[in-house]
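Q: What does the assembled structure look like for these inputs?
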Amino acid sequence: MSPLTFETINTTVLNTLSRPGKLYWCVIALLFGGVVLGASCWAYQVLVGVGVAGMNTPVHWGTYLINFVFWVGIAHSGTLISAILFLFNAGWRNPIARAAETMTVFAVCIAGLFPFIHLGRVWLVFYMLPLPNERTLWPNFQSPLIFDVIAISTYLTVSSLFWYTGLIPDLAIIRDRSQGIRKKIFKTLALGWSGKTGQWMSYTRGYLLFAGIATPLVISVHSVVSWDFALSVIPGWHTTIFAPYFVAGAIHSGLAMVLTLSIPLRKILKYEPLITMDVLESIAKTIVFTGIIVGFSYATEVFISWYSRNIIEMETFRWRAFGDYAPEYWIMVVCNTIIPLLYLSRKFRTHVVPLFIISIFVNIGMWFERFVIIAGSVAHDFLPNAWGLYRPTFIEGGIMVGAFCLFFFLFLLFVKHLPSVSMTEMKEMIHKTE
Amino acid sequence: MSTDAVIVTGLFKNREETLAAVQKIQEQGWQVKEVHSPIPDPELARALGRKESKVGWFTLTGGIIGFFSGFLLAVFTATRWNLIVSGKPILSWIPFFVIAFELTILFAVFGNVLGILTQVGLPDKDYEKNYEPESSGSLYGIQVASAPKDVAGLKDLLRRTGSLKDHKETI
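A:
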């Protein structure tokens, strides 16, 4: 393989923006169909009422909030890769940073939709905003739900601005190599960037500060999401380890999603010279690390409930492992902690097929983790006569399928219209290694 | 520089050649007006005598405004009716700190973006003036100011220092 130069990086990335073929548009159409299915299910729920979802006493937090937490988690590794690894100067992040940041933006947008869907009467969404009602009564800023509104809105704003700021020099490269309407669009988007020395100085300082600011934000956002649960008194939720447990889980699921996206992206867009096997291997090693943290958290939860001698907590964790949701619990344990250990074998982490398959298992496991935590805790709380079970309905399933289709639909549109690998960061990487 | 001065832009293929050329051009008494590069380079900035960026001050100011705005929002709204919820004090500083923290981040980022835009000088409608499009992709463009009568000598110097091509534009 010939060594990378600035020009080969430009050519490799810009070639991905060529006119897509029929297969691309067929996949886009298929995904759009899924989005329409999800939107139709939501429209049906708005017309008929939130009763069409499977949520009922005692489980009032169902698939919608499971998906909310799942997508916020997916978003997190984008910021981990783009901000935290940037601060640590980890070179392997550069080829995947743009795709991961984009994943963050789309995942937060989708996560943000679920509280709207969960509300049922979506037109009352402004109750969540810091606005007074007609009696000048404001939202309660002591409530973790309001923390969450503020945290997620901040996260969406910050990650979108971070993503766009990172894109500016690359947009200028496309602008300078385009003609006609495409040039006009990129001229507007690049804001007149010309790579002057003074521009780079302020830009790099601003970018570094962005990374520095995004790092505590990403940790705070999933901590705040965990407090939606931990600040209640529900057994299985009311625990102090939830914040680090959720943050580790978020990074675990997000890294798995980065692998799920990067492997086909690398093959289809011919990114092999940029997204090398070493990069994928580094992600796999990090997944082993986060998987061990997640496994430790599962064990700690069980230990805390046993050590507390609180019979309700002990019953909750016994029921999780051996009760009605035992299959979901063991899917969670096996997919998130046992299967990722396969990456300890070099054979598994240096071949794209096992890398891809294991990443899918982690995605599935992390979805079930949220199911077990959210539905599994409220289904079996204090009073045996109030216990119940929850199963999602077709409407909830349709909305969930729609959300996944929307994510991949947006991501596919992105990879053919904007540079999915940061040309500038790749050049900086090879410049540093020269 | 008189108003009839011209800018001559030379294009160089890598950073090392560019740095050497900047040094040589300055030694010969020419004024390097600007360097366009595909990646940031602190040494080039030092060679051109660029001052430290002030973006951090915008970020800091934004963060301070955000921190106090968050606290004030929570305190103001809680004291409109003085309703005790879940037995917590009206002014619950720990929960309010979460709001203050998130708004610190949000406003620091707004400050940061404002700082980038103002310090980088974006949006720049006149970016095309004296700009070589190849310098965004892989080459380095050095802009040197010259009196019209000295252009030939300057172009010769640029060629000798490794310029792949050069062009001139009137200021």
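Chain A touches chain B through 58 residues (CB under 8 Å).
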